[in-house]
């Protein structure tokens, strides 16, 4: 299936993305917001990691009241970073966007969030996203193609010790519906096959995707550089959103998130360990009709593929970042150094 | 990590495997039993498919009473095939093996089971595993390396339209603990990368694993043959057991099963769809001590890898099967025909 015009999650009509980053000495973290239209998007979630940090995920159980969410927050700062979602909720509520609970303007925005562990990666353990940073990421939301790599919640991320980041990808299905993913890649496992130096995700890339750099004929130096770059695994987590404009139910959105994790498994190995908090949200703007069974299957398959390709895009967009805590090398720089 | 002596699930000390197959015109189904020592094995489960057929999985919730199971039944016959587990339970109970509930000999064996859809694949929709077949598979249990390919519950299986089967693999970790998997591969998705003709799992194979056949330099004929062989997807399901001798808890066994599904995602694409009932059991004979966090991580990683390699072994052990319902071609025969 071909990607949409931007090959990112904003190809799903109505979805916007905004990033905000901490600044200053020792800071290397940020927040990313995925924002639907004011009526919200149908949402489900699948938490597969052993060390998740989340909020409002219980409200996404298909048996609960809430069907639509008003934003999804992906953020650095580990559990501290959940404060960013409070900033988003406050700002949305002030704008009258949320679940109506009373008179005019009385709303409660439903803002699920998931965090990645990046504490101290810039050198300062206490530099972490705040409510204000969340509000800034919300204010930055737009329907143009989001920046990828070391931006927003991807700032302080590592994957198998090399630099992670934010990545996105989309697919347009035969019936015109759009499926897309945006991920924040921060995993104990590796995005690279240590035997070949290739990205695990490379063979899942297609026309319109970012091409991985050519690898040297003699891989020995590259494989050594990759091994040396791999920092010892600490706490981690890959988080993200898999979205579509199809008319999925809450339960189907949860299934979309669940199958999205298969895409993660193909791009990162190992994954879903005890120190990964891997969490994916499934979003349906539902501006298109409910798909039949075959349509659901197609959306699930595309969702998993978009996650795999989004991981590739995150790693390929990442640049090396020197900090007092460590020199976080990018895949591209490691390959370039070994060519 | 090197495989154990047989590179199958019986490398986990105490585990036995038995197969039984239906015979006669139109029959192409069977049952496979994984049998721990009489005290049972700690067990968890993770159901990831959209169309599962199972029994006794609720008893494996970590919050429930039961910690150990007395056998795991993998069977053809779709939901009808659950009868095979009743035959296993009756036979175990008669032998005094089970959860003690009263006086001497008063036991209830806990026998979780999962089924694959294979109805009609041999031509006769009504030829399906019975309680007697389950008892026969139990009686066939032994600690020698189990047959792989078109045996037991693998008889009527297809994967992406080509012949599936039973496969197994094991890993011996640095501390001497063993991790292994046995899977019954029957998926709507494909085990083969349609762009290259290679098994998705091939790059995860290592020393001691079955080598895939060499592919022709010119792949065009093979890719066409693979495309033509692919029957339209019907109902499916990959099921299996990921096992270890480490001292895992029920919850850790469920996590072992969960991460096992990552191994499935790497070997089959797409997977976990609405018509796949993909279910994995995690078993711990727990004859070794409880691992620390790093040990748990190693076991999880090895479990996922064993599942990937077991899928490869299933496909590589499968032979073509002509039946009145269709000529189910094996990967090996398709490759041989195209070389």
SSE map:
The structure is a homodimer of 339-residue chains.
Chain A: E1 16-21, E2 30-35, E3 41-47, E4 54-55, E5 68-69, E6 72-75, H1 83-94, E7 99-100, E8 107-108, E9 113-115, H2 131-139, E10 158-159, E11 162-163, E12 165-172, E13 178-185, H3 220-229, E14 239-244, H4 250-267, E15 279-284, H5 293-317, E16 321-323, E17 326-328, H6 331-338
Parallel strand pairs in A: 6-9, 14-15
Antiparallel strand pairs in A: 1-2, 2-6, 3-5, 3-15, 4-9, 7-8, 10-11, 12-13, 13-14, 16-17
Helix pairs in contact in A: 1-2, 3-6, 4-5
Task: Give a verbal description of the structure.
Two copies of one chain form a homodimer. With 339 residues, chain A is α+β, with helices and mostly antiparallel strands. Chain A has a single domain (9-338), classed as 4-Layer Sandwich (L-amino peptidase D-ALA esterase/amidase). Chain A is 24% helix and 21% strand. The mean pLDDT of chain A is 95. The A-B interface holds A 48, 50, 188, 193, 195-196, 203, 255, 258-259, 261-263, 265-266, 269-275, 293, 296-297, 300-301, 304 and B 48, 50, 188, 193, 195-196, 203, 255, 258-259, 261-263, 265-266, 269-275, 293, 296-297, 300-301, 304.
């Amino acid at each position: 299936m071909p990607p949409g015009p931007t090959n990112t999650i904003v190809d799903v009509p109505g979805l916007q993305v905004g990033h905000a980053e901490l600044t200053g000495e020792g800071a290397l973290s940020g927040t990313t917001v995925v924002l639907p239209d004011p009526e919200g998007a149908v949402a489900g979630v699948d938490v597969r990691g052993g060390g998740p940090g989340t909020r409002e995920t219980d409200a996404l159980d298909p048996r609960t009241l809430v069907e639509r969410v008003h934003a999804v927050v992906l953020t650095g700062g580990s559990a501290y970073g959940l404060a960013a979602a409070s900033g988003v909720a406050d700002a949305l509520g002030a704008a009258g966007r949320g679940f109506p609970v009373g008179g005019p303007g009385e709303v409660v925005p439903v803002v699920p969030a998931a965090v990645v562990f990046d504490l101290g990666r810039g050198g300062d353990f206490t530099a972490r996203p705040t409510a204000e940073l969340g509000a800034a990421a919300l204010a930055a939301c737009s329907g143009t193609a989001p920046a990828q790599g070391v931006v927003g919640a991807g700032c302080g991320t590592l994957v198998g010790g090399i630099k992670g980041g934010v990545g996105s990808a989309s697919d347009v299905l035969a019936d015109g519906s759009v499926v897309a993913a945006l991920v924040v890649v921060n995993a104990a496992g590796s995005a690279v096959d240590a035997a070949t130096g290739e990205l695990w995700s490379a063979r899942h890339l297609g026309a319109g995707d970012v091409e991985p750099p050519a690898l040297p004929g003699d891989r020995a130096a590259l494989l050594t550089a990759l091994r040396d770059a791999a920092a010892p695994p600490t706490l981690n987590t890959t988080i993200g959103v898999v979205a579509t404009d199809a008319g999925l139910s809450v339960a189907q959105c949860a299934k979309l998130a669940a199958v999205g994790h298969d895409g993660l498994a193909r791009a990162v190995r190992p994954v879903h360990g005890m120190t990964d908090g891997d969490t994916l949200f499934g979003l349906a703007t539902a501006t298109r009709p409910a798909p039949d069974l075959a349509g659901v299957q197609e959306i699930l398959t595309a969702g998993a593929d978009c996650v795999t390709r989004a991981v590739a895009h995150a790693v390929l967009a990442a640049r090396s970042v020197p900090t007092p805590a460590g020199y976080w090398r990018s895949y591209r720089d490691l390959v370039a150094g070994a060519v």
